User: Which sequence fits this backbone?
């Protein structure tokens, strides 16, 4: 959207995720589009912080793969949950996924930490779900009658959950340090 607003490049709008009739590639490309400079700069700031943590722990390829999978997962869940006249743009789902991954890969897994996560996690999930329910009723209108929410809380929560799922799935893969 930044390119569209600055230079009126109409082709950029084809990259947004239109929930009423999405093209398969829009689930990926929407993670690289942003509503305005504030949206872009805040995502870049947090992407740098959490992306750097994931890259330091897991490497370049894991960072890119994590970004794409959490972003696509967040967009997929948003598409399934939000009204059909919605439009999704932004990297927030991927950023929340990278945040979750960076926390989980750096965390030491003793029983006290797991208990803390379970107790605090319930509170966080409850608050995010309240915000998600509120966000489905607080949306503005976009060109052609499409709804563009100011904050897609569904993408935030689902990006984080996809990050948890990704770390859990990868923890099941056998790893032998002598192979390197």
Assistant:
């Amino acid at each position: 959207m930044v390119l569209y607003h600055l230079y009126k490049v109409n082709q950029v709008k084809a990259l947004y995720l239109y929930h009423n009739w999405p093209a398969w590639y829009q689930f990926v490309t929407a993670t690289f589009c942003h509503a305005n400079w504030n949206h872009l700069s805040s995502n870049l700031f947090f992407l740098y912080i959490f992306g750097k943590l994931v890259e330091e722990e897991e490497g370049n390829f894991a960072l890119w793969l994590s970004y794409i999978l959490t972003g696509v997962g967040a967009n997929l869940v948003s598409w399934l949950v939000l009204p059909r006249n919605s439009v999704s743009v932004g990297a927030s789902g991927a950023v929340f996924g990278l945040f979750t991954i960076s926390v989980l890969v750096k965390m030491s897994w003793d029983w006290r930490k797991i208990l803390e996560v379970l107790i605090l996690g319930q509170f966080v999930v409850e608050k995010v779900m309240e915000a998600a329910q509120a966000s489905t009723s607080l949306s503005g209108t976009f060109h052609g009658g499409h709804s563009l929410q100011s904050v897609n809380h569904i993408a935030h929560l689902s990006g984080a959950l996809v990050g948890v799922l990704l770390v859990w799935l990868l923890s099941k893969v056998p790893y032998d340090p002598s192979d390197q």
The first strand starts at residue 17 and ends at 18. Residues 111-135 form the longest helix (25 residues). The two ends are 43 Å apart (CA to CA). The domain at 2-170 is CATH 1.20.1540 (Rhomboid-like fold).
